[in-house]
Every structure is written in C-alpha cells, then in structure tokens.
Amino acid sequence: AGLFSFSFASDTAKKLVELGSCPMCVLRGADLRGAYLKQADLNGADLSGADLSRANLSEAHFANGNLSGANMSESNLIGAELRGANLTGADLRKAKLKRAQLSGADLSGADLREANLSGADLRKAKLKWSRLKGANLTEANLTDARMRKDSLSMAILCKTKTSWGEDNSGCK
C-alpha cells in the first residue's frame, strides 16, 4: 500500500501498512520510516523504540499507545489523536503536530525542538524535561500541563493558553 521500502520487524508491521489498522499491536522497534499511515488506527499499540521518522501519520489514532523512545522526527502528525499516549523520550524534532490531540499525553523528556504544535491540545500533558526550543505553540492549549514555565522560554508563544493565562510573547 505504498511506494517505499521497509525493513519490517514482523508480519504485524506489514499488516499495518496494508490495512492501515492495527490497534493494540506490538510493534516495538519497528522500522516504519517514511510510511504512509494517514488515519491509521493504532490505539493502544506498542510502538516503543520504533522508527517513524518522516512518516505520514496525519489524523492517525494513537490514543493510550506506547511511543516511548520512538523516532518521529519530521513526521506529519497533523490532527493526530495521541490522548493519553506515552511519548517519553520520543524524538519529535521538526514534527508537524498542528491541531494534534495530546491531552493527558506523557511527553517527559521528549525532543520537540522546532516542532509545529500550533493549535495542539496539550491540556494536562506531562512536559517535564521536554526540549521545546523553537517549537511553535501558537494557539496551543497548555492548560494544566505539567511543566515549568521557564521551559517555554525558547518556544514560539502567541495566543497560547496556559494555566497562568494567555501568552502572547511571541506574536509578531
């Protein structure tokens, strides 16, 4: 179902690409670089340590999934459903997370440098030790997110909702 080659760890990964659905699947360490998985159902799946770099994951469903340590750098996650997902230590550098649903997600230690999180829902997300330098948080909702205020000092903030009010320090 794609014009790309993979080094599949298992038949489960092949099934995912062919069907676009694999809820609760175990795909630890799978090589899915550049995969086209738009609107894929991966709710509750274990993709810890997987390589999803440069993949099209727009509108994909990862609710309550395990993506800890996954490489999702430069991936398209626009409108993706990641509520309650474990993204601890994930590499999300330059990822497109515009309008992504990340409420209650654990992004502790995640690398979000230069990621586009504009309009993303990060309510009650855990962002401790996350790297946010250059991240675009325009119109993002960070209400009740667990983080230190100073961790946003290098991020782009404009109409950003936070527990301490709306932040417009990065508006141009």
Automatic annotation (TrEMBL):
Gene3D superfamilies: E3 ubiquitin-protein ligase SopA. Pfam families: Pentapeptide (PF00805). This is Pentapeptide repeat-containing protein. It comes from marine metagenome. The lineage of its organism: unclassified sequences, metagenomes, ecological metagenomes.
